[in-house]
What we know:
This protein has helices spanning 28-40, 48-61, 121-135, 191-205, 215-220, 275-286, 304-308, 331-337, 387-393, 400-405, 414-424, and strands spanning 2-6, 11-17, 21-22, 25-26, 64-70, 85-95, 101-112, 140-143, 157-158, 161-168, 182-186, 235-241, 247-255, 264-272, 293-300, 315-322, 325-328, 344-351, 359-366, 369-375, 383-386. By secondary structure, it is α+β, with helices and mostly antiparallel strands. The strands form 4 sheets. The protein has an 8-stranded mixed beta sheet with strand order 1-2-5-6-7-8-17-9, sandwiched between helices. The mean pLDDT is 96. Residues 334-432 form the Enhanced intracellular survival protein domain.
Amino acid sequence: MTTHMQDNRQDLRIERFAAGLDGDAPDARTLGWFEAVSFGFYDKKPDPADVAAYTKAYGADRRVLWGAYDDSPRPGVWDNQVPVATYATMVNTLNVGGGRLMDTHLITAVTVRATHRRRGLLRRMITDDLKHAADQGLAMAALTVSEATIYGRFGFGAATFTREVEIDVRERFGLRAPATGSMELAEPASLQELAPELFNRFHIRVPGSIGRQASYALRVSGRWSQDSAAEDKALRAAVHYDGDGRPDGYVSYRFAGWENKPYTVKVIDLVAASQAAYLELWRYLGSLDLMERIQFPLCPEQDPLAWGLTDSRGYEVKAGEDVLWLRVLDPVTVLQTRPYVHDGACTVRISDPLDICGGVYRLTVQDGRGTVDRLASDADVDAVVPVDSLGSLFLGGVRARTLAAAGHFSGASEETVDRLDSLFATDTAPYCITHF
Ligand SMILES: CC(=O)SCCNC(=O)CCNC(=O)[C@H](O)C(C)(C)COP(=O)(O)OP(=O)(O)OC[C@H]1O[C@@H](n2cnc3c(N)ncnc32)[C@H](O)[C@@H]1OP(=O)(O)O
């Protein structure tokens, strides 16, 4: 599909397409698109053989790629098959709590060439895309961000958070709980099938989890490296089995090298289908001979490991990070899909800078089920809730009381804030270990 965009310097052609192959090689448009993405994220120029492999995985994901093309390039300027802006979307599921999975519109690979920045290219693409996704019946959009300052204006709010941690695994490492089940070293390649199976059990169990694109199984099994489609020979993996000998978790990891002291293992992926498996995977990591430190950037904020160590000071939080940013497209559907722990009701005006879902809505929760009615635009409201704040509230990753104290709900009474706080509270903090 092709549309045009009037830039202040030229007419840009915007194309939407699926990544494609020409024989065994990527077609010119696909290769150009990958080149632009690599440039945008300061990566090295991609190898065509790698792009051919990525193209197949993108097909499995049903990704839609966007490119904005300059058809009047000047001499010396990059090949016009390389877009000046890129963007991509796909649909996967979000666990909204209570084991409910909701189709969600995922946005990724957003880049605008340095020479074309701040002329509204991103604004144009994301506005068109979100409106189109809403028209298609998708109720939620999501992305992960490179900078926290970009996407709030488009209605996205940070919704899940992780901790980057370092665990001291010298003599002080130990866990309070007795060991359960057993661990085995795994041939990483075996994870290509096992990893998605175990991830799906994690995904249904953990609110905030996003389903994974095809590349995950290839990377965590070492079939692909982090930055190419060549085998990752440094990757190691281990699997945990429950008392009945059934696999219930895996970890894949890499040694940081003898030149790095203290000797460190970097966890690439750690997926536990059960709570018990989570601690057991850490017990295994803590038992690795010669290793002194384990690094993992994706621990949950409420981390059982921090409370499971016999010496909790061996657990060091290096940074806190937001992972998933959510953008509500259809408040009725999303609020009726998630579960609730407290009954109550509240009428809010959702303010939406892109005018996709702004309006007055009444949420009524009874016996844990939410019902949402859209009211007339002049109906009395208890609070005005910006749509990005609603994205942050949705999974319970931040309390309404905290957002109110930060000035998100101007004019809301304390009683309203208490009600919002109670309505949006969840019993489990959301946790997302998928980047896309
Ligand atoms: C989901 C993902 O892929 S996250 C990755 C995002 N990409 C990157 O970080 C790669 C490097 N950066 C870029 O390629 C570009 O700078 C982009 C994509 C972030 C922005 O593209 P642009 O076309 O310059 O944005 P555009 O001109 O449409 O700006 C839209 C608005 O966002 C603001 N904005 C854009 N980028 C930034 C930024 N980095 N920080 C703060 N504000 C920003 C603009 O000021 C503008 O604000 P306004 O319309 O409210 O006045």
